[in-house]
Amino acid sequence: MLAMLDDTHHAMxxxxxxxxxxxxxxxxxxxxxxxxxxxxxxxxxxxxxGMPLDAAVNDLRRHxxxxxxxxxxxxxSVSAMRPVHRRTGSTCYxxxxxxxxxxxxxxxxxxxxxxVHRWAVSGTTIVAPEPxxxxxxxxxxxxxxxETFSGDDLDAAMMLQxxxxxxxxxxxHVDPSPPIPLRDxxxxxxxxxxxxxxxxxxxxxxxxxxRDFTNGVTPQKLPAHVADAFELEPKI
Length: 236
Hints:
This protein is of the alpha+beta class. It has six helices and seven strands, in the order βββααββββαααα. It has two domains: 2-91 and 207-229, Alpha-Beta Complex (Sufe protein. Chain: A); 95-167, no CATH class. The protein is globular, with a radius of gyration of 18 Å.
């Protein structure tokens, strides 16, 4: 199973190997990353080897502690296990998050070009459709989402919320030259692999990693051995 993520601040891929019942191997890499240590977070995914494909999300998360993993790569790996277990075939999710200046703004996610969720949000609160009005996008989001959705629709809701999380960085210039030391970002020490331990104390943000996808997503180029294995283009 090949899984890829392209958003304004990241581009990454992973290959999840399995025997139909459990994970037998994981490999991956970043092709665009927000901080210099991010690539080392791939090693944290090895904790998934031996996990059953139908493992509960909470069990998977316990094997992927923040300090040893990239939040987004961990999300991608968990999301990749769902279609393998359900045997749903190739799946493409498209997420649209308009600029925050338009309030309320409609955010949406589609699966294989079919709309799944479309929510109007003001700040970090959903205001429409009516059944979801007043629900938070941060804080207790996971709790109410699990009570409201299930299966693929729950996966899509979680992805859409992650899209909102990433989009919060868009108003800021986070990839300048010279790069910014990670320790200069207050309040997020321990949030992920790059912002933990020696990485946080000594590493910097990456340069020129933010992309403008207003007119559509530019897919990352995969390493030749990965692209060839899955018969994909383009490749490095």
